[in-house]
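Collaborator request, handled under Task 6.
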Amino acid sequence: MNLKQLLFSCMVFIAYSCGNPADDNAAAPPADSATTPAADTAALAEPVEPQPEPASNKEPAEQKQPVKPATRPAVTKPDGAHSSRNTLDWHGAYRGVLPCADCEGIETILTLATNNTFTLSTLYKGKEGKAQVSAGTFNWNDAGSVITLKGGAFDGTQYQVGENRLTQLDKGGQKVSGSLADKYVLKKGISPRPVLAENATELSGTYWKLTELRGRPVQEGWVKEPHLIFNAATGRLTGHTGCNIVNAGFETSGMNRIKIGRAAVTRMACRVPEQEQAFLKALEEVTDYTINEGVLQFSRSRMAPAMKFVAVKK
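Structure tokens returned to the collaborator:
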């Protein structure tokens, strides 16, 4: 091979090795051709950044709080330590004349016992008829200042308890106002004035202390001494059996005759109930009485005295 042929062969080889631009363009894949598997693998290998969640207009749900059991507001009770119920000597008999729309007044005797029982005697002055007696129980209000009667014709009647007095309240539980306000007050301890023993000649208006019962001396040591007080104006007697307060109607006639009605009695426990029962039974049985030098004797059909009393100054 000569030199020209060798040079030509070298040029052809170089041209072929460098490539033809037209051939390169023809061999190049189109721009929109499918991604090669290698490219796909590279794309899959790239980490994917998390995309933020789109904003929402909804407010976050409130967390449910545990449901607490409903509680009632604390109720403050009145302090009864210094109430009328705890500080006053409220038990006993209260008397007064209450206003009356069609009579001269209602003569009233309300007796309260420590076991929350009462007897109430009412007499309509200026009208025919005898005193009416009701008995029952009473309740205190939370403040210990007002009582409410339970039972009898005056069920629901309220009284404010004060020092030696009871004030009747209206239907709304309020004090009556106006010019008649003072007329609705019952006062304690107002009774006919007793007389001296040696001058006692009348049944009514004297404090009679029981000394003998069916011929036997009355025992000592009772809650209160047994006694009776008669009121001829009202036809009522009040007193004490030694255990309980007693209230009854009575009638007298000529020749010192007397008839005592069935007694209304409070219900306190009694240390010697036999004596109290004998006291009450004797009252119902007596038919005659005598008064001599301050001594009152009750008997049945003018037989031996069933009860003997002495007049005592109080």
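The cover message to the collaborator said: "The longest strand covers residues 117-125. The chain is about 15% helix and 30% strand. Please let us know whether this matches your experimental observations."
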